[in-house]
Amino acid sequence: MADTVFVTGATGFIGRHLVLELLSHGYRVFALARASNGWPPAERLMRALQAAHGSPLPGPSRALLEVVEGDLVTPSLGLHRLVQERLAAEVPQVIHCGGDIRFYPRDRHAFRAVHIDGPLNILRAVGPARGLRFHHVSTAYVAGRRDGTAYEDELDVGQAFRNPYERIKLEAEQTIMTVCEARGIELTIFRPSIVMADPRAPTADWSDPISAHFAAFARLCRLYRRTIGRIRALRPSLRIRGSGKSVLNIVPITYVVEAMLAVAVNGRQPGRTFHLVDPAPPRNQELLDQITAILGLSGLEAFEDRRRQMEGMRLLERVAENLLRPYQDYFFESPIFDDRNTRHLLDGRVEPRSAVALEFLARAAAAPLTMKSLLDLLPGAKGEARMVDRMKALFS
Length: 396
Ligand SMILES: NC(=O)c1ccc[n+]([C@@H]2O[C@H](COP(=O)([O-])OP(=O)(O)OC[C@H]3O[C@@H](n4cnc5c(N)ncnc54)[C@H](OP(=O)(O)O)[C@@H]3O)[C@@H](O)[C@H]2O)c1
Prior knowledge:
13 strands, 7-stranded parallel β-sheet, binds NADP nicotinamide-adenine-dinucleotide phosphate, alpha/beta
């Protein structure tokens, strides 16, 4: 049964792509999923997989997939004893992709339960199988807010955190390490940076929050360029809040799941942590200069102040600020992530790609433009209704 894997978070962005990758390589997958809004787990999972795959799952892949209904925050995942016994007997590897990716959760107690109790519940449910290997998906941003280089073997180095999400991800790593060590379970930790859809993938599954926001930003710039910006003199320049010297580390989902699979399959590397990152990300100012050219603006500038209101903000700047606000904190101090464990283990079999955000923006800007595609992405913006009215007036 060495080719059987238990995956959590299978309906999520990383989980659904990982399940597809595993199935396409002939792995048998037990996928944890839960019901939601009246949708049973199996149907939710199939819809998620179909969205990522771009078409219904082929029969041979379906045959390798078994859905396990359960919840991370329930002791032993709420699984029946017989299901637990099967998992204990048949599953040598767990890849834990489940989690709550909100930076500022409303309910801190529930947030803690998912991130800290969740993995412990999995270990209880799967049982003390001999030779069990547990792969945990963390984030490179456990490194927190700092410049310099962040190494894969670093944990708490006194870093400051941008948000409760980064803090709990570090605590989760520490807790899982302690438990796995005490129980003799082989542990690997994957730390992706910011993951987005792969612009080279034939299916455009841009439903994850980061791809959706970046696509909206690209469409917005294109819309502006094709209307007001047609007049060269009016071609807009744009200030984006962030540091021009810092870096935004973005990786495509394809690299993340291919690397995870290669490490999980090939590397008996207990206790090792793997940064799944862009090893040579462009500085933000370089990125902005290239985006300027791709999106046909007259100049994108970094607005270096984290809090101060921009003077004389144009409409385009206000909309862009609203779109990028959830990620703005990541446009300031960020380390370069050293990924030598990953490189060493992959040994060139899976290569990371640089400047994926740029490729993605170019593809998103070239995609068909509808007013709905833009307006759909404004919810939550401050003064949204007024802004939408003004946008409609501007472009009608
Ligand atoms: N996306 C990124 O850029 C990124 C970068 C670095 C690290 N990560 C890490 O990668 C992991 C996956 O992220 P993602 O982007 O794939 O997140 P996502 O799309 O929000 O998916 C989260 C998954 O976790 C499941 N889940 C949450 N609470 C659960 C519970 N109580 N019981 C069972 N399942 C539960 C969700 O199930 P439902 O569908 O039922 O809600 C969903 O399948 C997270 O640990 C995240 O911290 C993500």
